[in-house]
Structure formats: structure tokens, C-alpha cells
């Protein structure tokens, strides 16, 4: 079991994200997972720095903690050749600490290139092609690829690490679980669903199993829930909605009916370590072995102190 800390680029400035990563390493986290967005979920989150620049700075300022993208879409906003090059470079400059988390993307971030937003089945086929291209380029030498959606022409990644990064594939159903099993080294989820782990295993997957755990630390459950309602109410819309809406204003409208009781039901809110362990347990029981603690509370440093002093010893 490994425990990670979520770095939300939508909620904090780039320099603050880097500071939090260093603090997370000092607090004893095994890895940090960083989101890869062009837009925030909501305008009042107010940020969305370029993840790959931030990652380079984190690698330079840390020594031990693992680095994971959670997650990058390598099909539209980025061509997979660029991600193959970027991930290989990150593996080198982090001394092998990098894991590439990928997914089929969200309209929120990918529509910006003006090519429309494909349906889910098309997005999965595009993701499969993207992973084939990344794997092909990581073989070394000049490579070409003629796909239904993506192409590669006489390209080569020159700086390749001896040990290639793991690829962990975001999954919300059977189709993406099969892609994770066939072309990835692990699965990534945001819900405590045993069926995703079981589907991944049934398709031949035997790798790592990442999941984001919704926590919100504050001095009281009410204060914690209020922070989530202010900045992260979109969580309640569910992945089918989260992948389809194009702009922060749409997420504001879609999450306008989320209530405090909805937050308290899904998040571990407040200072009670037992409640936090209860929510974490939902994910371990579902079969996940790399847990990313996503703090929706108002004070990152207070959460890191709570983790180091109370939560981490109990998780161990």
C-alpha cells in the first residue's frame, strides 16, 4: 500500500503547488499526484498552471517522493508523441520517480483546440491509439504509425530512461479497464468500485491500482463541507457529467443543487481520524493499493500536519 497527496492545479497557483509537493514529501507521503488541466472546474478556483512545467520544478526540489500525473489526456490537446517525450524526460530528471497517468480526457480541457468533442467510444479508440504510439516511441529509433484517428511520421525520442515509466490508465467502466489491462501498467479510478478492479483483473490486468480518496480536513465537519461546497461541488455530478461539460460556468450550474449532506456523505469531513479511516477503507476494501488523498478542506498545511501526526500512523 502506498499513500499519495493530490496536487490540485485548479485550486492553487503554480508556485504554491510546488511548495505543497515539497511539504507532502516532508510529511511522509509516498508520492504526489498532479492534475493536468487547461481550465479549472469552477472560475472561483482561479488557477490552472501548466502541469509539465510544474512537474519539472517539483522533481528538482524533491528527493524521494514519487510523481504521478492524474491524469493526462494524450489524444487532443497533446499529441501522444509529445507525451512520450515529456514522460521519458520526467523519468530521467526525477531519477525514475515518475508514473504517467492517462485518460480519455474531459471536454472542459480538450475542446479548446476546436476539433469538437467525440463520443465516449471514439475517445476510447483514440486513447488506445495514443498508448500504442507512446509504447512504439519508447522502443527507440524512428517510428511511424497510421491510425484511424492519430498518426506519427518518422519520429524518435532520443532521451529514454533505462527503466520506462509505468502507464496507469483512468477507468470508469469495462472499456477503459480493458485498455488499462492491455496497454497500461495499472488502473486509476475516482470511486471505491470493486467492479472496476475486478474488470481490470478479468481483462488480464495485474498492475498497480490507483484511486483518489475524497477527504476534507478542518476544525469541524461543517467548516470542511463548506470549503468543498465553495470550490469543489462538481464532485457530485459524477464522471459521465464531468467528462462532458465544456466550461466552468457549466459546472457551476450543474452543481448548484449540491447540499452539505451530499458532501458529508461522500467526503471525510472534519478532524475525526476515524471518519477519515472509514472513507479510506472503502477504497482498500474495493481493492485499490495506491491511494491518493484529495483534501477538499480549506488549509493544506493543516491537512498535512493532520496526516503526519494522526492519519499516517493509523494507516501504517
TrEMBL record:
Keywords: Oxidoreductase. This is TIGR03557 family F420-dependent LLM class oxidoreductase. SUPFAM superfamilies: Bacterial luciferase-like. NCBIfam families: F420_G6P_family. It comes from the Bacteria. Residues 6-289 form the Luciferase-like domain. CDD domains: Tetrahydromethanopterin_reductase.
Amino acid at each position: 500500500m502506498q499513500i499519495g497527496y493530490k496536487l490540485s492545479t485548479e485550486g492553487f497557483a503554480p508556485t504554491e503547488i510546488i511548495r505543497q509537493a515539497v511539504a507532502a514529501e516532508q510529511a511522509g507521503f509516498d508520492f504526489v499526484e498532479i492534475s493536468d488541466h487547461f481550465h479549472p472546474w469552477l472560475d472561483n478556483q482561479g488557477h490552472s498552471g501548466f502541469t509539465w512545467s510544474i512537474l519539472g520544478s517539483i522533481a528538482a526540489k524533491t528527493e524521494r517522493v514519487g510523481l504521478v500525473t492524474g491524469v493526462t489526456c494524450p489524444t487532443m490537446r497533446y499529441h501522444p508523441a509529445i507525451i512520450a517525450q515529456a514522460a521519458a524526460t520526467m523519468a530521467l530528471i526525477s531519477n525514475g520517480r515518475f508514473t504517467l497517468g492517462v485518460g480519455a480526457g474531459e471536454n472542459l480541457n480538450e475542446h479548446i483546440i476546436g476539433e469538437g468533442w467525440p463520443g465516449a467510444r471514439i475517445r476510447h479508440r483514440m486513447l488506445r491509439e495514443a498508448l500504442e504510439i507512446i509504447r512504439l516511441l519508447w522502443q527507440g529509433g524512428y517510428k511511424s504509425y497510421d491510425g484511424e484517428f492519430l498518426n506519427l511520421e518518422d519520429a524518435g525520442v532520443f532521451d529514454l530512461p533505462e527503466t520506462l515509466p509505468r502507464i496507469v490508465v483512468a477507468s470508469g467502466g469495462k472499456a477503459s479497464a480493458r485498455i488499462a489491462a492491455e496497454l497500461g501498467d495499472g488502473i486509476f479510478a475516482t470511486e471505491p468500485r470493486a467492479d472496476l478492479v475486478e474488470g481490470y483483473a478479468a481483462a488480464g490486468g495485474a498492475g498497480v491500482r490507483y484511486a483518489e480518496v475524497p477527504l476534507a480536513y478542518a476544525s469541524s465537519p461543517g467548516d470542511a463541507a463548506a470549503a468543498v461546497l465553495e470550490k469543489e461541488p462538481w464532485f457530485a455530478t459524477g464522471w459521465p457529467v464531468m467528462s462532458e461539460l465544456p466550461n466552468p460556468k457549466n459546472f457551476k450550474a450543474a452543481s448548484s443543487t449540491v447540499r452539505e449532506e451530499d458532501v458529508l456523505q461522500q467526503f471525510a469531513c472534519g478532524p475525526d481520524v476515524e471518519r477519515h479511516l472509514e472513507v479510506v477503507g472503502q477504497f482498500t476494501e474495493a481493492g485499490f493499493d495506491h491511494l491518493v488523498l484529495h483534501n477538499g478542506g480549506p488549509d493544506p498545511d493543516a491537512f498535512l500536519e493532520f496526516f503526519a501526526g494522526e492519519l499516517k500512523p493509523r494507516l501504517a
